[in-house]
Specification:
This protein is mainly beta. The protein is 12% helix and 34% strand. The chain contains two helices and eight strands, in the order βββββαβββα.
Protein backbone atom coordinates (compact mmCIF):
# COMPACT_ATOMS: atom_id res chain seq x y z
CA UNK A 1 0.00 0.00 0.00
CA UNK A 2 1.19 3.53 -0.62
CA UNK A 3 2.23 5.43 2.49
CA UNK A 4 0.60 8.62 3.66
CA UNK A 5 3.12 11.44 3.10
CA UNK A 6 0.95 14.48 3.84
CA UNK A 7 -1.30 15.11 6.83
CA UNK A 8 -4.94 14.92 5.81
CA UNK A 9 -4.24 13.23 2.46
CA UNK A 10 -5.00 9.50 2.33
CA UNK A 11 -3.73 7.55 -0.70
CA UNK A 12 -5.63 4.53 -2.00
CA UNK A 13 -4.38 2.16 -4.67
CA UNK A 14 -1.22 1.02 -6.43
CA UNK A 15 -1.18 -1.87 -3.97
CA UNK A 16 -0.37 -5.55 -4.37
CA UNK A 17 -0.80 -8.72 -2.36
CA UNK A 18 2.12 -11.13 -2.14
CA UNK A 19 1.98 -14.80 -1.19
CA UNK A 20 5.23 -15.74 0.53
CA UNK A 21 6.69 -19.17 1.30
CA UNK A 22 6.49 -20.40 4.90
CA UNK A 23 10.18 -19.69 5.47
CA UNK A 24 9.81 -16.15 4.06
CA UNK A 25 12.51 -16.63 1.43
CA UNK A 26 10.46 -16.84 -1.74
CA UNK A 27 7.51 -15.03 -3.26
CA UNK A 28 5.02 -17.68 -4.38
CA UNK A 29 2.56 -15.34 -6.04
CA UNK A 30 1.43 -11.78 -6.36
CA UNK A 31 -1.78 -10.01 -7.30
CA UNK A 32 -2.29 -6.35 -8.08
CA UNK A 33 -5.27 -4.92 -6.14
CA UNK A 34 -5.61 -1.45 -7.72
CA UNK A 35 -4.05 -0.02 -10.86
CA UNK A 36 -3.71 3.65 -9.88
CA UNK A 37 -3.43 5.89 -6.81
CA UNK A 38 -6.35 8.05 -5.68
CA UNK A 39 -5.60 10.70 -3.05
CA UNK A 40 -8.46 11.53 -0.71
CA UNK A 41 -8.54 14.62 1.49
CA UNK A 42 -10.37 17.82 2.27
CA UNK A 43 -8.82 20.88 0.58
CA UNK A 44 -6.80 22.99 3.05
CA UNK A 45 -8.83 26.16 2.39
CA UNK A 46 -12.12 24.68 3.60
CA UNK A 47 -13.53 24.06 7.06
CA UNK A 48 -15.74 21.26 8.24
CA UNK A 49 -18.64 23.75 8.46
CA UNK A 50 -18.19 24.83 4.84
CA UNK A 51 -17.46 21.39 3.44
CA UNK A 52 -19.84 18.46 3.59
CA UNK A 53 -18.71 15.10 2.29
CA UNK A 54 -21.25 12.29 2.19
CA UNK A 55 -19.21 9.49 0.56
CA UNK A 56 -16.26 8.77 -1.68
CA UNK A 57 -16.40 6.90 -4.96
CA UNK A 58 -13.95 4.84 -6.96
CA UNK A 59 -14.00 2.44 -9.86
CA UNK A 60 -12.45 -1.00 -9.60
CA UNK A 61 -11.12 -2.30 -12.90
CA UNK A 62 -9.07 -5.32 -11.82
CA UNK A 63 -11.83 -7.32 -10.09
CA UNK A 64 -15.59 -7.32 -9.49
CA UNK A 65 -15.36 -7.09 -5.70
CA UNK A 66 -13.94 -4.51 -3.26
CA UNK A 67 -10.49 -5.28 -1.85
CA UNK A 68 -9.63 -5.43 1.85
CA UNK A 69 -7.51 -2.31 1.36
CA UNK A 70 -10.70 -0.47 0.27
CA UNK A 71 -12.13 -1.27 3.72
CA UNK A 72 -8.88 -0.23 5.43
CA UNK A 73 -9.00 3.09 3.57
CA UNK A 74 -12.52 3.82 4.85
CA UNK A 75 -11.56 2.93 8.42
CA UNK A 76 -8.43 5.12 8.67
CA UNK A 77 -9.15 8.29 6.71
CA UNK A 78 -10.66 11.48 8.13
CA UNK A 79 -13.37 12.44 7.88
CA UNK A 80 -14.68 8.91 8.05
CA UNK A 81 -17.23 8.48 5.25
CA UNK A 82 -18.51 5.54 3.25
CA UNK A 83 -16.95 4.65 -0.10
CA UNK A 84 -18.79 3.47 -3.22
CA UNK A 85 -16.86 0.90 -5.24
CA UNK A 86 -18.08 0.57 -8.83
CA UNK A 87 -16.93 -2.47 -10.78
CA UNK A 88 -17.75 -3.60 -14.31
CA UNK A 89 -20.65 -5.67 -12.98
CA UNK A 90 -21.64 -4.41 -9.51
CA UNK A 91 -21.85 -1.42 -7.16
CA UNK A 92 -20.83 -1.80 -3.51
CA UNK A 93 -20.81 0.55 -0.54
CA UNK A 94 -18.10 0.15 2.08
CA UNK A 95 -19.61 1.46 5.32
CA UNK A 96 -17.72 3.32 8.04
CA UNK A 97 -18.12 0.20 10.21
CA UNK A 98 -16.11 -1.79 7.65
CA UNK A 99 -19.16 -3.67 6.38
CA UNK A 100 -19.49 -4.11 2.62
CA UNK A 101 -22.98 -3.82 1.11
CA UNK A 102 -23.76 -5.05 -2.38
CA UNK A 103 -26.12 -2.44 -3.80
CA UNK A 104 -26.82 -4.40 -6.98
CA UNK A 105 -25.82 -4.82 -10.58
CA UNK A 106 -24.13 -1.74 -12.01
CA UNK A 107 -26.83 -0.93 -14.58
CA UNK A 108 -29.62 -1.38 -12.01
CA UNK A 109 -27.99 0.90 -9.44
CA UNK A 110 -26.60 3.61 -11.70
CA UNK A 111 -29.32 3.58 -14.34
CA UNK A 112 -29.00 5.46 -17.58
CA UNK A 113 -27.69 8.67 -16.03
CA UNK A 114 -24.86 6.88 -14.17
CA UNK A 115 -25.52 8.70 -10.87
CA UNK A 116 -25.22 7.10 -7.46
CA UNK A 117 -28.24 7.04 -5.12
CA UNK A 118 -28.36 9.59 -2.28
Amino acid sequence: MPAQTQAGIFPLGADERFRVSADGRAIRGRRRLHSAVIEFGIPADTTRKAYSLEAGVQTAVLDNVPEDTDVFHVLVREPRVAQYVITDAFVYRVETSGDIRLLGRREEVLGKDGKLPR
